[in-house]
Amino acid sequence: CGHCQNLAPEWKKAAFALKGIVKVGAVDADKHQSLGGQYGVQGFPTIKLFGINKNKPDDYNGARSAQGITDAALNSLRSIVQDRLGGKGGSSSSGKKSSGSGSGQKDVIELTDDTFDENVIGSSDIWMVEFYAP
């Protein structure tokens, strides 16, 4: 597909830019036709954004550029964060509970001299760290 070949370098740029922030995948719809049918794919390339509700992904109809794709991914993240701040919940992919729930792992990871470098400095993830005095 010519359109798919044109998208490929932009898709790879977006994947690189979003690494560690949003996972980017691709499905060979010739080999895995049932997946395309399951999500209503009728033409190629089709981009779907699997946010909070994995059973009902959003169709991406924006620019077929790395910038357009990354903007859509970041807007989806922003929406998830706003929902959580507003108390609408939504589960994270790790299954962690919202703070104050009393069950599951804590959302805030307690860091020490022994764990800071390994968790923060040695990670490709973005961290926000609060330095506090009890």
From TrEMBL:
GO terms for cellular component: endoplasmic reticulum lumen. GO terms for biological process: response to endoplasmic reticulum stress. PANTHER family: PROTEIN DISULFIDE-ISOMERASE A6. SUPFAM superfamilies: Thioredoxin-like. It comes from Scyliorhinus torazame. Gene3D superfamilies: Glutaredoxin. This is Thioredoxin domain-containing protein. One of its GO terms (molecular function) is protein-disulfide reductase activity. Residues 83-109 are annotated as: Disordered. Residues 1-79 form the Thioredoxin domain. It comes from the Eukaryota.
